[in-house]
Amino acid sequence: MSRLQYIYRKFINSLFGDVEVFYGLPFRWRIRGALAIGFLYLAIVVIVFLTLYPAQSAESYSVNSIVIGYIFLFIGVSGAILPIFIPLLRSYPGWVILATIACFIIAFNIILDPALQSDNKATHYAFFIGLLAITFGARLYARVIREVVFEKAQIDTEIKLAQKIQSDLLPPIDIDEDRFQAFGKTVNAQEVGGDFFDVIKLQEEKVAFCIGDVSGHNIAAGLIMGIVKSAFRTELRYNDNVSSIAASLNKTVIEQRSRGMFVSFAAGIIDFNLNNVEFVNAGHPPLIHLHSTGIDELRLDSAALGLSGELHFKSAKRNITSGDVFVCYSDGILETRNRKGDEFGSQRLIDRLRYTPPTSSSQEIYNNIFRGVESFSGTMSRIDDVTLMIIRVY
Hints:
Elements: H1 3-16, H2 27-57, H3 63-81, H4 87-90, H5 93-116, H6 121-169, E1 173-176, E2 180-187, E3 195-203, E4 206-214, H7 219-236, H8 242-256, E5 263-271, E6 276-282, E7 287-291, E8 294-298, E9 315-319, E10 325-329, H9 331-334, H10 345-354, H11 362-377, E11 386-393
Antiparallel strand pairs: 1-2, 2-11, 3-4, 4-5, 5-6, 6-9, 7-8, 7-10, 10-11
Helix pairs in contact: 2-5, 2-6, 3-5, 6-7, 7-8
């Protein structure tokens, strides 16, 4: 790049670059940017009017000169705003700037000429000081906004990347095997959530599953979620004891977490040969066991992962028969609120299951519960991630 080209680009950027901040924004924000620039020029027009008021009072103007002057002023303002919406004008910034400057010169020459010939020096100084203040203030403000938008764009890019990674790590589950059926999804309260769930077929006679909730709803929670879920799968390659797995995951969380973060966690291994399920719970809402004779909450008292390195996790076993259903959920379902501030709670969840037809598939049970939660909350926004997974045994 030659010295002349460098000077030209610096000149173009100094005069034209401040509106570049609006180019990549959504249309509604470009409208707001155009209005912001328009209001700044309106302020200049107001100062011009106040400056010229004495001359106007002395009838130094003709109506035609005022109209022509303001027409050129309007054209100049349009030259500064239209590139926000017309990409073609951005390809010729030099010509647009020259045309804009020419219009401003003509406009101010027509409008200011009678006033500059008057003897009211104080208003002249006030006008130019005000004009310079608005010009430099607007440019500084535009540069600040440009930096803010740049930073926000970087953050948005990182969030979108985190969302993509999380969606890859946490796809919806829809499994229909000979011995079991599973269906599950999560709905984040924010861009990146901390809930996770998984179902892994270990052998022909065993299936493992887990559900968890990392404290917080930020990118850090999403990262911990991915670490714990991956660690759960890794542990299952060498170990099928849920108590031992929970203890190992507890160490992983303590090593990786930020201060104050913890993970509620529940997991189980279904053994079709022994017709039982062994489960563990670390500070997570109890699993619900729906069977032919009733509905039970599988409760085990233990602290969440990451709270202490000295935790011991006890497991329990429950017999299963064909047709049994296990409902795994996060506390986002229980804490869903309606307009009155009431929580959905565990009792409404159990009541919803109580009237579920016994032949319903996992997806039908999921849809039945989720419809109930959405009907209860109405238009209220979610305050926590909502995760639900249904496992049906054949």
